[in-house]
Amino acid sequence: KYVADINRVQFRRSQAFTEACKVGVGWLDDGARDDPTEDILYSKNESWRNVLWDSKATELDLSDARYLFRWKWVDEDIAVMMFPDRADQIRAACAGNPGDESTLDDWYLGNPVAGSGSLGGLYSDFTGTERRRVRIIEAQFRVPVKSQVVADGPMKGAYLNPMDNRLIEEVAANGSRIVDRITMRVHFAVMTETAMLALSPSAYRHNRFTLTPIWFYRDNKTRLPYGPIRRVRDVQIDLNKRASKALFLLNTNQVVADRGAVDDINVAREEVDRPDGWVTKNPGKEFLIRRDSEAANGQGEIMSMQAQRIQNSVGINNENLGRQTNAASGEAIKARQLQGSVSTTECFDNLRLAIQIQGQKQLSLTEQFYTDAKVIRLTGQKGKIEWVKINQPEQQADGSIRYLNDITNSQADFIVAEADFAGTLRQVMFDSINAMAAKLPPEMAIRLFLIAMEFSDLPNKDDITDAVRKVIGERDPEKEMTPEEAQAAEEQAAQQAEVI
Q1: How far is CA 52 from CA 63, 358, 446, in A?
Q2: Across the strands, what pairs with 166?
Q3: Tell me: the pLDDT tens digits for 34-59?
Q4: Close Cβ partners of 387 (under 8 Å, ≥ 6 residues apart)
Q5: Is 121 in contact with 94 (CB distance < 8 Å)?
Q6: With contact defined as beta carbons under 8 Å apart, do 145 and 182 qualify?
């Protein structure tokens, strides 16, 4: 929770899920950094435009994928500082043909858009000067190698990394066995289009890609992702066409006239098209203006049908949107909401799976990199701040060092509980508890009301709760006792002890 709070993970997930809803996939990135001004662990979202993955992979967590690529545009001076021993290769990549990075990621139906530039080079920014930038490509790939793996103990299954000093200490302290196995080990490579900049095995214990996908839908044949927009694209084109047709019918008129009914046909045509037009016809000649409103109404009815079809195709009905329908009872509304959620069950299951995978990676990174003594701030119930100390060294009587709340000596599990999605879960709990309290005796209903107020969003709910507690003679358990209350509690406890 601490890692999620400092990295605003809930907003990162929302951004990645928004991209998944549009294009079919969003990406979350979790890893460690060496910036002393920031927390050692980071969590962010990555644009789908910057990522390519193994097209043969079938698992949703990419556990069977052999490779994953992503790239980022970096200024030349920053890239040189990152890889000083490869400065010549970076400068050579920047000196390629001029190209604009804004056009390099434009693809349509699997083909690059005409006019795309080079992967490296010069381009002009808003100042009109040339800015040297290079596209840095990161490859995460799995290769079979002989690895040392912990065979037993609390760190069972972890890869033995000579740089992971805390893991080596735990293995030695528990006497765990180390075995050699042929495993698919994740490696990292950083490169430009023409030169390798860095290559090494993954330093992370979890041995996974740092990127976690959030899928929406996937094609059964090609396994390519797609969003709900693809389902309704053809329907939307037809709706737009009919809207254009209806607008044309409403803005045009048909004329039925005898030959010679008007002196100038062109002038008559212009006047008929005007809302305040004036047409002078010749005597004895018929001149009728007809507007085909029935055809326009027919186009409008088909437009309404297509709009409803779009709504049904994406699985969102009026009950899900909170619109007024012919469903009168609450049970009928819930039933229709449940019916509307059938089409979106797959994508929300994929979101929950992505949260599960990301949480496992975050826990593993926390156990690996939170090795120093640290005080973590957690927000408890009712906004109460709790301070938790971890990895605190304590010297024992025999001179040995024991760590209190050591989070590095074991491997934890990350569980995602399933709950109904609602506009506000707190409001649902508030309504449910109040409905339950209405069926109970008054003395029990008041206590349930106090519990329900914890889920209320009223700005003065604490004052209401205190007033109710004063009436029933109950104190707030979250507040510290006054000296009088503490003395009364001790006397009451003593009396109960004498009775026993």
Answers
A1: 15, 19, 58
A2: none
A3: 888 888 999 999 999 999 999 999 99
A4: 375, 376, 377, 378
A5: yes
A6: yes
**Tokens representing residue 443 in the block:** 């003395």
Q: Which residue has the higher pLDDT, 248 or 456?
A: 248
Tokens found for residue 143: 């290769």
Cα–Cα dist 138/159, whole Å:
22
pLDDT level of residue 421 (50, 70, 90 thresholds):
very low
This prediction has a pTM of 0.70
Higher pLDDT, 233 or 28: 28
Burial class (CB in 10 A: 0-12, 13-18, 19+), 264: exposed
φ, ψ of residue 281 to 5 degrees: the values are: -105, 160
CA distance 58 to 366: 29
Burial of 307: CB neighbours in 10 Å, binned 0-12, 13-18, 19+: middle
Strand partners, 218: 225
Q: What is the C-alpha separation between 25 and 213, in angstroms, rounded?
A: 7
Give the N- to C-terminal CA distance of the chain in Å, as an integer: 44
Token representation of residue 126: 């808003």
Q: What is the pLDDT of residue 385?
A: 77
Cα(176)–Cα(153) distance, integer angstroms: 6
Q: For the residues 418-436, what does the mean pLDDT come to?
A: 62
The token duo for 223 is 């396994």
Distances (CA, A) of 126 to 74, 116, 184: 17, 20, 46
